[in-house]
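During the second year of the project, the team shifted from modelling isolated chains to modelling whole assemblies. The rationale, set out in the original proposal, was that interfaces cannot be judged from single-chain predictions alone. As a representative example for this report, we include one of the complexes processed in the last quarter. Its constituent sequences, exactly as entered into the pipeline, are reproduced here:
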Amino acid sequence: MAHLTIAASEATFVKLFNAIRDNFQFAKSDSVDFGPFRAGYDIKFHLENGDIDLRADNTVLVDELDIKWDKLDLSLGIDIPEICVGGFCIIPNPFGGCLVRAPRVCIFSADPDITLTLPLGGITSELSLAASLVTKYFIDPARPVGMNDWDAQDAVPPLNNKWQLFLDPQWLDVDPIDVADTVGDLLEAAANAAVDNLLGFLPGWARDIIKAIIGSVIGLIRRILDIPDDIQEWVSDLLNVSFGLLDIIAQFVSDYFAAKMPLHEIEDPYPILEAASNPNPGPPPMLVPVKIPIRDLTVFNDDVEMVLEANVG
Amino acid sequence: MNATLNRHLFTMAAFDSGSLGMLTSVIHQFQKPGRYEGVIRRQGASVGSFTFEVAESSSNMQLEIDLARAPAPQKMEGCECAGTEKTPQIVSPKGYVLFFASSGTGGYSVVVGEGGEKGAKVFDSERLENGDLFALSLLEPTRYSMVNQHGKAKGTINVTFNRDDGRRLKNLETQYVEVRRDAFQPSQVQVISTQGVVFRVRELARIVVKKTESKEKREGEERPPIRVIRQLPPPEKKKQNSNR
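Output from the structure prediction step:
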């Protein structure tokens, strides 16, 4: 029979979970070359809400945990084709076609590249997970070998050993990122703005001519990117599948709960009496805290509460 | 890939068959088979040279020579450069040699002679003759003047561009102008931006097309101060003061 048993209600467990949920932040950026174009993402999200349920099978279910996208920028780098003038027929061939053509002179020295950035943030995704509660014993890597517990306590920062309680996900399901149906409008606006920026130094009449040569900017972009009719679906596939964002999110969230952010920590040895001034005359002026070692800490739960059991001494 | 804009394309105001730049080219047919040598000049100085061959055996109908990229004359000796004796360019006697400048601010002219020390001069781009062609493409929608500097021919080219024209850019037909010493036919040309204009030379010519002042500049131009001349009335005869 364990020397020590601590029980926490589901409500208390929820408070512990909410504290680590609110501490969660994720940010990442990366880019991939797809050949005809380059695509990149710059993302940042935090977690909110979620229904916590302690289950009778010794697991914890976290359902409908919101992924709040603070930033979800998709950038597309495209080389637009040559924009040239000339090439007209100088001497027609009397038998058809052209015998001599004028040289083509291109507006740019090479294929100009433009970058479109689509700000897709502000949306919400969801994830769910089921996890087991696990305990781990933590020794601070900065703690020198052989350091005693009092010196570890007095170090700045303290280098106490700890028992840590984690949620170890057994499965984790991230819903696909569902971009807004206005993404098509965003893409068109970004494409036009990018071309305007490219031609910004030119007088108005020159911009008009070049745009006429390019034709429909959004049509050109769609041809280069090979976007089918449904732009929304194409962008969603790019984010969820091509970039593998769902896998990246799932892995990070899993690592966060399982290894980076403990639900709770218990100092070992555990102070049962704090340091105090010596009530008796004579040295020492201060009495050290009274601590008791914690051994064999285990955790389990049912559908009502979480229970910690340990031996002491 | 980062690309730099060819800004000069949009600032050109003059197009001269004797001083070639981007958007202009001169075309000549060398009908006699043989080897030819050309010297490129710019602002009176030799800046490059090239050679080519006219051969009956060639079926090449268009040989392009980029005056902005030909090697400098001092580099010709012992040089393995393209377009030199080592790698001659060849064209059919029924074909045409097109001289143009693919970059830079222009100012190029070319003289071509038969190969060898005593080769006769056969072509000078500053003096176009019957059968030569001068081709150009005008971008800015505005009015241009055209003159033949070896005669009295004058005319105008009006370039326009609107949204409807934008849809037709790929299907524009080349506009041709016959050139004689003292006349262009037609003398007034109407084209759309980027549309090709080809001058067919019939008599000695050096064709210069220049942008005239745009309407916008004329409207925004400051008026010179007006000189006011006001005729003063004759001085009034002074009445004698009876109280003096």
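Chain B is about 5% helix and 40% strand. Helices of chain B lie at 163-166, 215-220.
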